[in-house]
Write a structure and sequence with these properties.
Ku70, Chain: A, Domain 2, 6 helices, single chain, alpha+beta
Length: about 260
């Protein structure tokens, strides 16, 4: 069963528009996660926001967003103000232009998503855009608001759908010249190159997902299975009933029954 989409809107190319739905192409649901517990009681530990000056707990309704102007000054922004500056790209993926599919280096790719028609009515328009990109070997560049920020996105046809890649911002990719510029240029020795090329040929395999499995995850699960769970301690232990009370332990009643029969 496919997971529920977390974004719905429209895919637009000039006057061609169709309703679409978007969902992450990757998942972290299988990752082993731990909860922080109180080692003495076994109770889960909760995190809370505290006032940095007073140390008091700040309730959810009192939390607001602030932009720092200095260490001591912040501009407070209300939710209504943030909604007012929302861009059209919060609801529409409007394809601005197209680029050759192999022209954008992989280092700009951020996260992949599956883009698909939201209903049967929009499938024809969706298919036209997808197949036209496939036939021309082009990928579409658009903008989309995700997580409160506008992102440049790349649309690539794949199968019956479209892969939407969020792209990194320009200031997130460091220039390679700053790191590779000092490496000495020159051609390696021909014999060494031949040997390494032969090694590469011998070790070439067909790609399969098993090549990127994480053995640490399975080791962690095996460790969890081998350990006994720690039970929580109760907040208050029940006191033993005093003489004269009508409350009778089931075990005491059973013992008395057996002794009576004896």
């Amino acid at each position: 069963m496919a997971p529920r989409s977390y974004w719905k809107g429209y895919l637009k190319l000039s006057l061609v528009t169709c309703p679409v739905t978007l969902m992450p192409a990757t998942s972290e649901a299988e990752r082993v996660r731990f909860r922080t517990l109180n080692g003495k009681t076994g109770h889960p530990v909760v995190s809370r926001y505290l006032d940095a000056e007073t140390g008091d707990v700040v309730d959810d309704e009192d939390q607001v967003k602030g932009y720092p102007r200095s260490e001591t000054e912040h501009v407070i922004l209300e939710e209504e103000e943030l909604d007012a500056v929302a861009l059209e790209s919060a609801r529409t993926i409007d394809i601005d232009c197209f680029v050759p599919s192999d022209e954008i280096a992989w280092i700009w790719y951020d996260r992949p998503h599956y883009l698909m028609p939201a209903d049967p009515i929009g499938e024809e328009a969706f298919a036209v855009i997808r197949e036209a990109m496939r036939a021309t070997d082009r990928s579409g560049v658009a903008r989309l608001v995700l997580g409160g920020r506008e992102r440049a996105v790349l649309l690539m046809p794949r199968g019956e759908g479209i892969i939407l890649w969020t792209l990194r911002y320009g200031d997130e990719v460091r220039p390679e010249e700053a790191y590779f510029g000092d490496i000495a240029a020159g051609k390696p020795e021909a014999k060494a190159l031949t040997l390494v090329k032969r090694l590469i040929e011998e070790r070439t395999r067909t790609w399969e997902p098993g090549m990127v499995e994480d053995p640490v995850q399975e080791n962690l699960l095996e460790l969890v299975r081998s350990k006994k769970p720690k039970k929580r301690t109760r907040k208050g232990s029940a006191k033993a009933p005093k003489g004269g009370d009508n409350v009778v332990s089931i075990m005491d009643a059973l013992r008395k029954s057996i002794e009576g029969k004896g």
